[in-house]
Write a structure and sequence with these properties.
mainly alpha; 65% helix
């Protein structure tokens, strides 16, 4: 049996994303928006350096922001 032309052109349905996948996707979107803003304000070199440094701090377990001073 040969599939009709319409059936061959229909894309396969996308799998339903889990809540975790939706959450990760939202973070990637936020990260992309931040990267684009950094590039627009300071260029690709700054954005790349900032993202790499942030990734290094995450990998090493270092804090990404300074704790608020109490006082």
């Amino acid at each position: 049996m040969i599939a009709s032309e319409d059936q061959r052109q229909m894309p396969s349905p996308q799998p339903v994303m889990s809540e975790e996948d939706r959450s990760k996707d939202a973070f990637f979107i936020q990260l992309a928006e931040i990267a684009e803003a950094m590039i627009a304000a300071h260029g690709k070199d700054f954005a790349t350096g900032a993202l790499v440094l942030s990734a290094k701090f995450v990998a090493e377990g270092k804090p990404l922001i300074k704790p608020a001073s109490g006082g």
